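User: Can you recover a sequence for this backbone? Please restate the input before giving your answer.

Assistant: Of course. Working from this structure:
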């Protein structure tokens, strides 16, 4: 796939996530995908394998509903970088949090192999999720 194709796949992945299209996501996550989530909160950690990553997605939206504003997607032969503003609203208490994030995707043959997420305010995100159910 070309860098442009990879960028479009990542864009469609965001759309599938928001729409709750787990079938599309399942098809486009490599069986051994690794998804790195920074911080010190109930969602932080390294998720390994398709089922683990899909479980992380389900847990994340159970905690807080996300809304993404896509700023740019940049692609090379090996990686895609998505720059977004994300807005979360916790389901249990209505608290909100906004952050600018970058996600680096490594793709292989139309599937996501590894993802690294970096947020501008990781400490704020940790505070936002304090007391959230594990």
């Amino acid at each position: 796939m070309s860098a442009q194709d990879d960028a479009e796949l990542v864009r469609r992945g965001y759309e599938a996530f928001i729409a709750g299209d787990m079938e599309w996501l399942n098809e486009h996550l490599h069986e051994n995908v690794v998804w790195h989530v920074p911080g010190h909160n109930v969602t932080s950690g390294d998720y390994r394998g398709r089922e683990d990553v899909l479980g992380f997605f389900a847990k994340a939206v159970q905690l807080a509903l996300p809304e993404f504003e896509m700023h740019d997607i940049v692609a090379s032969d090996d990686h895609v970088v998505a720059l977004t503003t994300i807005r979360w609203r916790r389901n249990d208490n209505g608290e909100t949090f906004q952050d600018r994030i970058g996600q680096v995707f490594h793709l292989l043959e139309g599937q996501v192999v590894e993802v690294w997420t970096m947020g501008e305010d990781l400490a704020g995100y940790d505070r936002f999720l304090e007391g959230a159910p594990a």
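That completes the design. The radius of gyration is 14 Å.
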